[in-house]
Amino acid sequence: MDNTTFIRKMSNIRILKKAFTDHSSSNFLNDYQRGLRRLYHGDCFGSQEEHKLWLSRSTGYNAGFINADIMIRCDQDAIKKITLYACMNEGGR
Q1: In sequence order, what E strands does the chain have?
Q2: Which of 37, 40, 42, 84 lies in disulfide reach of 6, CB 3.0 to 4.6 Å?
Q3: What is the pLDDT of residue 58?
Q4: How far is CA 8 from CA 1, 82, 92, in A?
């Protein structure tokens, strides 16, 4: 991942964090940012043990680490409900 892409994605996450303030979305976005940081900085960001732990416990971290796109889905049954999810198959380093 190049510097421009990293900065743009981190900026986009900060914007999403202002819009999605519920607990699960906040956790997902925080973890996604952490995964992006690990992808960009490599072994300089956290230890290998921490990386393995995050990979095993966090969908958001995994999504950030593989540079997955974040999509926003509006639920037709509940007009106000908006859900964040990662397109894990469409992302890529």
Answers
A1: 69-74, 82-87
A2: 40
A3: 93
A4: 11, 23, 16
